[in-house]
Amino acid sequence: MSIFHQTFKIQSAMRPTFQDVTEQVEQVLNGSGVEEGILVVFSQHTTCSVLIQEASDDLDYWGTDFLMQDLVGVFEKIIPTCRTQGQYLHPGPLHIEAARGRDELPAWSLNTDAHLRSVILGRSVTVPVEDGAMVLGDFGRIYFADFDQVRARERLVRVQIIGE
Amino acid sequence: MSIFHQTFKIQSAMRPTFQDVTEQVEQVLNGSGVEEGILVVFSQHTTCSVLIQEASDDLDYWGTDFLMQDLVGVFEKIIPTCRTQGQYLHPGPLHIEAARGRDELPAWSLNTDAHLRSVILGRSVTVPVEDGAMVLGDFGRIYFADFDQVRARERLVRVQIIGE
Amino acid sequence: MSIFHQTFKIQSAMRPTFQDVTEQVEQVLNGSGVEEGILVVFSQHTTCSVLIQEASDDLDYWGTDFLMQDLVGVFEKIIPTCRTQGQYLHPGPLHIEAARGRDELPAWSLNTDAHLRSVILGRSVTVPVEDGAMVLGDFGRIYFADFDQVRARERLVRVQIIGE
User: Fold this and answer.
1) Pseudo-torsion of CA C61, C62, C66, C67, nearest 10°?
2) pLDDT, mean over chain A
3) How far is the C-alpha of C102 from the C-alpha of B127, rounded, in Å?
4) In chain B, what percentage of residues exceed pLDDT 90?
5) Which residue in A16, A12, A46, A15 sits closest to C56, CA to CA?
6) Could you tell me the CA-to-CA distances from C125 to A124, A129, C38, C41 in Å, in that order?
7) How far apart are CA B117 and CA B43, in angstroms?
8) Which SS3 state, helix, strand or coil, does residue C118 take?
């Protein structure tokens, strides 16, 4: 039994981005030599999620998968994009002060919607590994979602594998 | 330390179905011989979820647990059942073309609501195993949920156990 | 490779409570001696969740983190607090009868909202462990959420670690 971990980077835009990271995760799995076990894909960013969804073929004008844009549409109804202070309680005055202390622009903290949307979807997925491959069914793909709309950022995708 | 995996099948209906699979999962655990570790119950279907919930005793006229039907009621408000094309972006023309190539009826792709509801609940649960048993508290049960309303289908429930 | 588990208790109030349990979990991890692996923080209570979120500095008049209260605000819109029977299907007559058999007050079963909110957030988080520490990024914290508003209760937080 062994443990293996590796990270890779992706680049998000200033809109909700959903990146299919299945192939990168497969490469990590192949490099680990693990044949049987479990694999965790994890986001250490609290405005991001990892999810398993079908690739739905069609892309919108921004390049976003139709099914993912439908998900954004649902979230927009129940957790509207944060456009101004006072729309949510967060970010409060202490949070803004702390952000200034880190040389962050106050407006960068207007990502309340991203914190709330991403926590509902969850920070990780756990996938069974059998015969050296992830078991994702015929259509399942792993996506790294970044809901933060205030900044384009480089994000870290973390893969942890336990098995033999 | 050892790894154990097994699958079993369930049959869903043409409405959101929630099947209590706790006993089947317990049988898999007992067969594994694992006394201490973790157990993952996983759906490889992207319109299905696995969840832990209390069994709520009462069933509605369709045989659905009251608490599960309340969950469907919440989803119906925020992610209405997909009844016709154009209600969501998905399924788009490329998706329908791909489905035709697999000899699927176009209407079978009108399961957008199921993809969205299930991804919010998640594809798996991870349960601690102690003294040869899952730790689910006094009332916790494991349910396999199928949100797809366009087809009744046989579904695969996947159990992965790591421990000793 | 070894398996380690431990529990600790927290006290909830008669309102949605979110307790930062990061330090307690770190103590469990340190006591385990595990340097590389995965760590699961799990709720065996079906009205509670475990989640990873940023600490947002500001607290409301009840002592609730602003970002968590914003989450409650979203849930209040889509899954309103259960105030009376008939608002949801659950709790039904068989459930009330079973509760009476356990010497529970019938009103204690009016926690439908808590069951539904918590299952959407999930019952556990899985966190990678590297170099003897959880990988939570710069701002991530682990919270134990209790959504049950009908009773203040002692709750069990369960930590399971696999690694070496």
Assistant:
1) -170
2) 97
3) 26
4) 99
5) A46
6) 8, 19, 10, 6
7) 14
8) helix
- DSSP states along A11-77: E--SS-EEEE-HHHHHHHHHHHT--SEEEEEEE-STTEEEEEEE--S-B-TTS-BHHHHHHHHHHHH
Instruction: Output the CA torsion A118→A120→A122→A125 (10° steps).
Output: -120
- What is the Cα Rg of chain A in Å? 17
Task: Return the CA Rg of chain B.
Answer: 17
Q: What is the pLDDT of residues C5-48, one digit of tens each?
A: 999 999 999 999 999 999 999 999 999 999 999 999 999 999 99
**Rounded to an integer, what is the distance from CA A51 to the centroid of its chain?**
7
Q: Give me the torsion for CA of C163, A154, A70, A24, rounded to 10°.
A: -50
Interchain CB contact of A102 with C (< 8 Å)? no
Report how far residue A111's alpha carbon sits from residue A118's, in angstroms, rounded to the nearest whole number.
Answer: 11
Distance from CA of C31 to the nearest CA of B (A): 17
What counts of helices (H) and strands (E) characterise chain B? 4, 8
DSSP three-state, residue A160: strand
Bridge partners of residue A140, in order along the sequence? A54
Token pair of B94 as six digits: 């490329």
A3 part of contact set with chain C, CB < 8 Å: yes
Cross-chain residue pair C121–A120, CB shorter than 8 Å = yes
Q: How many CA atoms lie within 13 A of C104 on its CB side?
A: 15
Q: Any bridge partners for residue B146, and if so which?
A: B17, B48
Left if phi > 0, otherwise alpha if psi is -120 to 50, otherwise beta: which for A132? left
Q: Residue B126: its chain C contacts at CB < 8 A?
A: 40, 42, 124, 126
Which residues of chain B neighbour C162 with C-beta distances below 8 Å? 37-38, 162-163
Spatial contact of B9 and B39, defined as CB atoms under 8 Å apart: no
Q: In the 3-class helix/strand/coil scheme, how is B100-115 assigned residue by residue?
A: HHCCCCHHHHCCHHHH
- Whole-model pTM? 0.98
CA distance B160 to B42: 8
SS3 of B76, please? Answer: helix
Q: Which residues pair with C50 in a beta bridge?
A: C144
